[in-house]
């Protein structure tokens, strides 16, 4: 559960206080990590209905990793 809270915090900041297109979401799709911008992810996941938030592997902004499923880093 803590991951979902941290992800919600990152998504909220991106959507309301920053440029959401500068955030890259890496998610698992049949054991392959695909990268899309945050708005694209929300659209293709049908607001987390078809791709659950638990399949997000990482979120980065530029070269900074904001969230990683393996390391759980926030910078």
What does this structure look like?
It is a single chain. By secondary structure, the chain is an alpha+beta fold. The chain has helices at residues 2-17, 38-44; strands at 23-29, 32-37, 56-61, 64-68. The chain has one domain (2-68). Strands 2-1-3-4 form a 4-stranded antiparallel beta sheet. It starts with a helix and ends in a 7-residue tail after the last strand. The model has no long low-confidence stretch (mean pLDDT 82).
Describe the biggest sheet?
4 strands, antiparallel
Rounded average pLDDT: 82
- Number of domains in the coordinates? 1
End-to-end gap = 20 Å
Task: Describe the structure concisely.
The chain has 2 helices and 4 strands; from the N terminus they run H-E-E-H-E-E. The chain has 75 residues and is of the alpha+beta class.
């Amino acid at each position: 559960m803590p991951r979902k809270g941290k992800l919600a915090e990152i998504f909220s900041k991106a959507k309301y206080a920053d440029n959401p297109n500068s955030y890259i979401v890496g998610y698992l799709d049949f054991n392959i990590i695909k990268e899309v911008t945050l708005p694209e992810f929300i659209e293709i996941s049908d607001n987390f209905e078809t791709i659950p938030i638990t399949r997000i592997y990482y979120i980065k902004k530029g070269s900074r990793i904001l969230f990683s499923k393996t390391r759980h880093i926030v910078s």
